[in-house]
Amino acid sequence: MTRPNIVTRLGEAGVLRQALADLLNLEAPPEPGTAIRCVYPERHKNGDAHPSLVIAKDGARATCRACGFGGGLLDIAMDRWNLPSHAGAAAELERRYLAPPPGPGKPQIYKPHTDAYDYVDEYGRLLFQVLRFKTSEPDGRTGKTFRQRRPDPNGSRNWIPQLGDARRVLFRLPSVRKAVNSGQTIFIAEGEKDVLALESAGVVATCNPGGANKWRPEYTESLREAAMVVVVADKDVPGWRHARKVADALHLVVETVRIVEPKEGKDSSDHLAAGHTVDDFVEQDSDALAATDDRWDGPIEIDITPDVGEIVDRTDEALRRSPTEMYQRAGSIVRVQRERTPKHLLRPPAAPHVVLLPADALFEALALVANWYGETNAGRKRVHPPKWAVNVLLARGHWTFPWLEGIIETPTIRRDGSIVDQPGYDDRTGLLYEPRRDFPPVPSDPGEAEIQEALRELLEPFAEFPWLTSADEAAAIASL
Questions:
Q1: Do 10 and 16 touch, CB atoms closer than 8 A?
Q2: Average pLDDT score, the chain
Q3: pTM of this structure
Q4: What pLDDT, in 10s, does the model give residues 117-175?
């Protein structure tokens, strides 16, 4: 006997109209044969002031006469839940409306997206969307999550539920480029909702897709030669980390970079909703925020879903925050190799050097930084990291790992004249300082006497060298 289709089964269970209502963000099921405001008013010139989304008489279909959104229940579910097929939509409808309630520890239940944020290129052409979803746990708690999708390149109205090779750009890129060229101040928030709040306050604002710790070099290039950038940090550890990393990336390409945080609430939206202005943000010091830098909080949980991009993004983030030391260099993931010389050998250890991270080592690291879960016939179970996650991560060519310019064994000078003299990675230069001997402290603001003493020590080995001219001597000293 053939099993009834999902629409028939939803109707028999008495939840068909409620499912359609949820998909259309309605508090109550719509009346068959009526017209309501389209769920995508931004696609209409007048915001669909004259309702054009028609509910079919069977209560299982809805079609917008103006923008073409809709179709059958499965078509609507594919669009609203960002799913790739009718089969996936049917399975999700069954899980939400016909399956028993999930128990403790089960994945969240995602409702239709409440907001869609367009990411466009310099000319306003749509590249991809970020979708915002409300979520609810079995215990009634609410939250949010995000998904990304790009337009089907074949020109249809369909969406592909991953970013794939879509160009990544800053939110509101045309406004950002205009502000760079005109010398306006640009605010960087952590999310799209905050950007819209800041724009409502009268300033130019942007953010990167993906939220905290997803900043890329191409975003930095979009802001090159900006007069002033104000990074608004969310008031939590990930927000502080993100703000500091963005500011550090911009210091060499932007004239002035400031970090601020809300005077009230967690983010820009809370700050402005409380009645404060953009002038009321509280100034923060980048060096003070360094104390909040990446700390290992234990493995995270990753569910293996069709959303490859999100899985690899979370994997990247987990690896960056893990005790595993990883860097990026010349389009590859690398680590620093340090030889351990047995005590009975008198030879000194070899200098640390950079080596490529093998795929097998990356697979082992994925198992350490995350607990992986997959859906089986018996339900959600712990599984090994998928090999494809390793391959996709390696193929990206850019990551959130620190950028390693090189390894040094002696103190050196940054571009701004400050000194790198603390062992470890220096994120302002990308240098890893690993001294093989003790050096005297280098004064940050030496006096005249200290300068003359250092110069005498520098010149002492050449005291009796027969220089032909003073220019020869100056050239030799400069080469040091």
A1: yes
A2: 82
A3: 0.51
A4: 999 999 999 999 998 877 665 555 666 778 888 887 776 567 777 777 788 999 999 99
Contacting residues for 256 by C-beta, under 8 A, at least 6 apart:
227, 228, 229
Q: Which two tokens stand for residue 79?
A: 């669009």
Cα→Cα distances 27→19, 24, 63, 126, 146, Å: 11, 9, 19, 31, 22
How many angstroms separate the CA atoms of 210 and 147, rounded? 9
Of 238, 250, 176, give the one whose Cα is nearest residue 207: 176
DSSP assignments along 246-266, one per residue:
HHHHHTTTSSEEEEEE-SSSS
pLDDT in tens, 329-368: 888 899 888 765 555 555 556 678 888 988 888 888 888 8
Non-local (6+) Cβ contacts of 373 within 8 A are: 301, 302, 303, 304, 380, 381, 382, 383
How close are the terminal C-alpha atoms of the chain, in Å? 86
Helix-helix angle 16-23:86-97, to 10 degrees: 110
Cβ atoms of 112 and 145 within 8 Å: the answer is no
262 to 206, 209, 266, 294: CA distances (angstroms): 16, 21, 7, 22
The conformation of residue 39, written as its DSSP 8-state character, comes to S
Instruction: State CA 284 to chain mean position distance.
Output: 22
Token code pair at residue 22? 């949820």
How far is the C-alpha of 242 from the C-alpha of 233, rounded, in Å? 7
Rounded to an integer, what distance in angstroms lies between the CA atom of residue 133 and that of residue 115? Answer: 7
435 and 409 in contact (C-beta within 8 Å)?
yes
For the chain, give the longest Cα–Cα distance.
Answer: 103
Alpha helices of 322-469 — where are they, by DSSP H? 359-369, 387-396, 448-459
Residue 32 sits at φ, ψ, to 5 deg, of -55, 140
Instruction: Tell how strand 406-408 and strand 159-160 pair up.
Output: unpaired
Long-range contacts of 151-159 (CB under 8 A, 24+ apart): 151/126, 157/68, 157/69, 159/79, 159/82, 159/129
Nearest in space to 16 (alpha carbons), one of 70, 61, 80, 54: 61
Sign of CA dihedral 228, 234, 240, 246: negative
Tokens in use for 83? 């799913």
Q: How far apart are CA 254 and CA 249, in angstroms?
A: 9
Confidence of residue 39 (pLDDT cuts 50, 70, 90): confident
The token pair at 389 is: 């996650």
Q: Which of 175-184, 359-368, 421-430, 437-446 has the highest mean pLDDT?
A: 175-184
Cα 301-306-308 angle, rounded to 5 deg: 70
At 192 the pLDDT is 94
Cβ atoms of 130 and 146 closer than 8 Å: yes
Joined tokens for residue 292: 């909040």
